[in-house]
Amino acid sequence: MQTSTATPFITNDESLKSLVQEKYGAIAENAEVGGCGPSCGCGPTDLNIPTVMNEDYTKLAGYTPDADLALGCGIPTQFAQIRVGDTVVDLGSGAGNDAFVARALVGNAGRVIGVDFTEAMIAKARANNEKLGFGNVEFVRGDIENMPLAGDVADVVVSNCVLNLVPNKPAAFSEMFRIMKPSAHFAVSDIVLGGDLPKGIRQAAEMYAGCVSGAILQNDYLAIIEAAGFQNISVPKEREIFLPDTLLLSYLTPAELADFRASGAKILSITVYGEKPSIRV
Hints:
Elements: H1 13-33, E1 87-91, H2 97-106, E2 111-116, H3 119-132, E3 137-141, E4 154-160, H4 169-179, E5 180-194, H5 199-203, H6 205-209, H7 218-227, E6 231-241, H8 245-248, H9 254-263, E7 266-275
Parallel strand pairs: 1-2, 1-4, 2-3, 4-5
Antiparallel strand pairs: 5-7, 6-7
């Protein structure tokens, strides 16, 4: 009987976080030396996961090629209603791609703060910002579940294909709510599910770092946002992500793959908008 070439399974929050740091640290470091580039690590089974999700930033004001590691699954700034003078917080800021696009929107009067869990990404983002010379953009290292930011600081929060990587999503959205000013709003692009994924995909380490295994059902995702206290929640953009059979067969047997295709389950990229109430309730 043929079996899948499954990768090591991940079973607890701390190992998940360690995996994310390891994988995305390797991406940042390889990008510096012209290595494997925009893939989730360099292993043979995790190639091209982000690139099938990533959208084209090249025509956006503020686009910085050195900051674009092709790790996103949307363009949250398109729906973030960012205004001149706003303070924008970018969660999981990576090498600074969305932060620099946000900087073009807030102008000299605004402020952009990028938060990332991976030291190598922070170093790359800071190096990119030093080249650009922006005095109102900063990058800080921190866990999204417990951010090193004061409360009521952000007019707008954006995030791109990051919150699905956070093990404790209710804590992450609660922290997002805490750092936002009353009447502030957010736009996050993320990966969610329309149906159940096979166990092999859910537990495979590289697929988690590729933003797939950490995803949850779309309805559950939106319920977490609502439970955190946000209102006027909407999904202005949704698109299906198709992962090729050649990739999935690294995690599933042919029979499991056939069952998955027949189930109608989908992997979706969505952009969600929501607002913090003006008065605490």
